[in-house]
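Feature request, filed as a ticket because there's no other form

It would be nice if the structure record came with a short human-readable summary line next to the tokens. Right now we just get the raw output. Example of a typical job, pasted below so the devs can see what we mean:
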Amino acid sequence: MVPVVAEIALENRNTFAVAKLNIKDGRQTLRKYPIRQTPTYMVFQDGKRVGSFAGVMPKAQILQKILSVIDVE
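Raw output as currently delivered:
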């Protein structure tokens, strides 16, 4: 999934930012946002979580899920 998410990040770099957290390195973050399945995607806008989804899926579906929960100006 890493190459797919990297493509989404590159293609949409003027619309939104993408960050990656390795669950082995992000223990403090995992306490705040528990992960039940990998991969898990969390969408934030203005510092607040506005959506999340999990599982392996096609690039178009990931992008659609992101865009469905953010305000794009």
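Something like this underneath would help us a lot:
The helical segments are 2-11, 27-32, 59-69.
The CA atoms of residues 50 and 63 lie 15 Å apart.
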